[in-house]
Design a protein that fits this description.
One of its GO terms (cellular component) is cytosol. This protein has about 575 residues and is an alpha/beta fold. It folds into 2 domains: about 30-445, ANL, N-terminal domain (Rossmann fold); about 460-560, 2-Layer Sandwich (GMP Synthetase, Chain A, domain 3). The protein is about 30% helix and about 25% strand. It is built from 17 helices and 26 strands. Strands 2-1-11-10-12-13-14-15-16 form a 9-stranded mixed beta sheet, sandwiched between helices. A 5-stranded parallel beta sheet has the order 4-3-5-6-7, sandwiched between helices. Strands 17-18-20-21 form a 4-stranded antiparallel beta sheet, with no helix packed on it. Helix 4 (about 45-60) packs across helix 5. The longest helix is centred in the first third of the chain and has 17 residues, at about 80-95. The radius of gyration is 24 Å and the shape is globular. The chain binds 5'-O-[(S)-ethoxy(hydroxy)phosphoryl]adenosine (WTA). The site of 5'-O-[(S)-ethoxy(hydroxy)phosphoryl]adenosine has 21 residues, from helix 10, strand 14, strand 20 and strand 21.
């Protein structure tokens, strides 16, 4: 545990940013990062301006900003193109009096218009809310309702999942890909943009004005709207430089969907703030397709997730035949623990180390990372970014010594720290219950060289293939099924996905357990909530373990599953 691995493959990072980590930490000042930007002088910002227009103004308008492809489209856009397209949509929004502080949501698959419209939303100072295309009715409704979104950008295929009549605040829907129904304020995105001006003065904002909202799951209650503000750009830019190692001529590919924070912080903001060419691949995962995306675009920096690497690993050497991956010089991972086994496999097939990075929706940006050029200890998340102080605390807020497991905590504040949980200040306060610290909900320990080692979640949140799934949301859906009396949901360890969703269910009287019923219940969640939240395993039980106050004890379910002792049962019902 915690020994340095001297057979280090350095990767091919070119930025000597952290050549001396301890020096960098000692001399680091956020002010020095801020000084890089024009806004340091004016005090006014706009993320979309900094990520797009600034490059045009500084003579980089003809540089390729977006390389998009899927099975039917293959397109390339310059920074000047992005400026024009986002200006047009910004003007459309202004025409309908949508502007500063309004929440405008996006519900569509990865495609260029998702990127154009998101930038357009930011141009006018509205707050963007990207949703996964996999969300079904209930998931979409909960998020639009809670956020009070006034407009939505979506596609004709997804429109039927939007329960308009239950969303009084949702005034406009912009349809990408044809169709309109003006009487019901459903407008054709293309037509509207075509008739709008391509000139637009962005809304000038303060660092504390809204930027983006991502809904994410905790162990209790509905998903929380994590609200980020403009100042996050300082961290996106800085980590783009020191962690992603982005330089002018890089071709960068982040495989994440913008429905997940990684797909915005590092799939939009960091690369474009740094002015690099950003690759977006639409469609589903396939090993062959992914490797061809790297080869065809000559991707140099690649940011993905452990489940994807594990799937590539299990696809075997066959999938690597005949593809040239020699352009790759820096590979990173986020979202779940990165197994040492996967790192060692990466050493072989990519001839370089995969760099693990740790952060959360709430943190807005990377906080603990394996930096380019740093000695990597396989299994460790790395060390805090210069400017970030991380530690391990016990439940009372006392610092714990090295090698002692406890709450992974980050000293407040940092530029991309969430500003609030929308409509729920109590939830927000919970993260900051120990003065001066953000409590992550992860447990970890630190070794004697300041490397952090992830141990698990403190709460019941499930992490399946990098997606955070709240057991409560799944349980709530399950008990809507007529056969289900009670349901308890846990994460069951899985070699490919990290964890899978497993549901324990007691049936209502008159229902007989059967494989068909299991399949039907799973499909009920899949079609009502989303595919990734649907239980991959269901076990029927006559009775579920409950506290005397009637709360299902997930901890006991987990112990059953892992065949471990159930721990303190003093509060159990009988
Ligand atoms: C987990 C992801 C181990 C962790 C950007 C965290 C990780 C949650 C790592 C956040 C990592 C993320 N190693 N676990 N490198 N990165 N996690 O909000 O439990 O979807 O609290 O954001 O994922 O998930 P989220």
């Amino acid at each position: 545990m915690g020994q340095v691995h001297h057979h280090v493959l350095p990767g091919r990072a070119r930025n000597p940013n952290l050549a001396d980590y301890d020096q960098a930490v000692t001399h680091f000042k956020w002010e020095d990062v801020e000084r890089n930007f024009t806004w340091y002088d004016t005090g006014k910002v706009n993320m979309a301006y900094e990520a797009v227009d600034r490059h045009v103004r500084e003579g980089r308008g003809e540089k390729t900003a977006l390389l998009y492809s899927d099975s039917t489209r293959d397109e390339s856009y310059t920074f000047a193109d992005l400026q024009e397209k986002s200006n047009r949509f910004g003007n459309v929004l202004r025409k309908y009096r949508i502007g500063k502080g309004d929440r405008v949501f996006l519900f569509m698959p990865r495609q260029p218009e998702l990127y154009f419209s998101l930038l357009g939303i930011l141009k006018v100072g509205a707050v963007a809310g990207p949703l996964f295309e996999a969300f079904m009715e209930t998931a979409v409704k909960d998020r639009l309702e809670d956020s009070g979104a006034v407009a939505l950008v979506t596609t004709p295929e997804l429109l039927h999942r939007v329960k308009r009549e239950e969303l009084p605040e949702l005034r406009y829907i912009f349809l990408v890909g044809g169709g309109s129904d003006p009487e019901n304020y459903v407008l054709d995105y293309e037509t509207e943009c075509a008739s709008a001006s391509e000139e637009l003065e962005p809304e000038w904002l303060g660092l504390e004005d809204g930027l983006i909202m991502h809904y994410t799951s905790g162990s209790t209650g509905k998903p929380k709207g994590v609200y980020h503000v403009q100042r996050a750009m300082i961290q996106h830019y800085y980590s783009g430089k020191v962690v992603l190692d982005l330089l002018d001529d890089d071709i960068y590919w982040c495989t994440a969907d913008p429905g997940w924070v990684t797909g915005t912080s590092y799939g939009i903001f960091a690369p474009w703030l740094c002015g690099v060419t950003n690759v977006v691949r639409g469609g589903r995962f396939s090993p062959r397709d992914w490797y061809q995306t790297i080869e065809r675009n000559k991707v140099t920096v690649w940011y993905s997730a452990p489940t994807a690497f594990r799937m590539l690993m299990s696809a075997g050497t066959e999938s690597l035949k005949g593809v040239d991956l020699s352009s790759l010089r820096h590979i990173l991972s986020v979202g779940e623990p990165l197994n040492p086994e996967v790192i060692r496999w990466g050493d072989k097939v990519y001839s370089q180390r995969i760099h693990d990075t740790w952060w959360m929706t709430e943190t807005g940006g990377q906080l603990i990372c394996n930096f380019p050029g740093m000695d990597i200890k396989p299994g460790s998340m790395g060390r805090p970014l210069p400017g970030i102080k991380a530690t391990i605390l016990d439940d009372k807020g006392n610092k714990l010594p090295p090698y002692t497991m406890g709450n992974l905590a980050i000293q407040t504040p940092w530029p991309s720290m969430m500003d609030r949980i929308w409509n729920n200040s109590a939830k927000y306060e919970e993260y900051f219950r120990i003065p001066g610290w953000y409590i992550s909900g992860d447990s970890a320990y630190m070794d004697d060289e300041g490397y952090f080692w992830f141990q698990g979640r403190v709460d019941d949140v499930i992490n399946s293939a990098g997606e955070r799934i709240g057991p409560f949301e799944v349980e709530s859906k399950l008990i809507e099924h007529p056969a289900v009396a009670e349901a308890g949901v846990i994460g069951k360890p899985d070699t490919l996905r990290g964890e899978i969703v497993k549901a324990f269910i007691s049936l209502r009287q008159g229902y007989i357990p059967s494989p068909e019923l299991k399949a039907e219940i799973a499909s009920f969640v899949r079609s009502g909530l989303s595919a990734h939240a649907a239980p991959r395993e269901i076990e029927f039980k006559d009775k579920l373990p409950k506290t005397r106050s009637g709360k299902i004890m997930r901890r006991v379910l987990k112990a059953w599953e892992l065949q471990l002792p159930a721990g303190d049962l003093s509060t159990i019902e009988d």
